[in-house]
Specification:
The protein has 158 residues and is mainly alpha-helical. The protein has a single domain, classed as Up-down Bundle (Ferritin), CATH 1.20.1260.10. GO terms for molecular function: ferric iron binding; ferroxidase activity; heme binding.
């Protein structure tokens, strides 16, 4: 099936953001593991894997639309040196992704590509949930203090 005008370009922009997020979250997860924050390690690693699944879906969809997935391009990976810095950088990445997906929904509606629009809407719901989780972590740190928050991150959820 041939893609409608501009859809492959938007899909590749979302793919670029996903490939960047995979790496950013993977590094953050490894850092959390190294620091002994197992709960955070598993949560952030899970998010990296979710981004890999999204990238897989995007690549398949681009190929379905007879386009070429651009996997050579990646944005700057921002690595936080502390947990609060990581959370802020991940929040920024997710907010940028939400904007990209929202723009994609608008474009796909305009050109009549409802399958891609639906895919972007599903991804946006997932991004919304992750933004909520990150904002909750940042607020929890404000309320209980960084030391208390980090002490809770040492053990993995059962």
């Amino acid at each position: 099936m041939k893609a409608k005008q501009g859809v492959i370009e938007i899909l590749n922009k979302v793919l670029t953001a996903d490939l960047t997020a995979i790496n950013q979250y993977f590094v953050h997860a490894k850092m959390c593991s190294n620091w002994g924050y197992e709960r955070l390690h598993h949560k952030v690693r899970e998010r990296s894997i979710d981004e890999m699944k999204d990238a897989d879906e995007l690549i398949s969809h681009i190929l379905y639309l007879e386009g070429v997935p651009n996997v050579q391009r990646m944005n700057t990976v921002h690595v936080g040196e502390t947990v609060p810095e990581q959370l802020k950088l991940d929040l920024k990445a997710e907010q940028e992704m939400l904007t990209l997906l929202s723009d994609g929904v608008v474009h796909c509606t305009k050109v009549g590509d409802f399958t891609t629009r639906h895919m972007f809407e599903d991804m946006a719901k997932d991004v919304d949930e992750h933004i909520d989780w990150i904002e909750t972590q940042i607020e929890t740190i404000k309320q209980v203090g960084l030391e208390n928050y980090l002490a809770e991150q040492i053990h993995k959820d059962s």
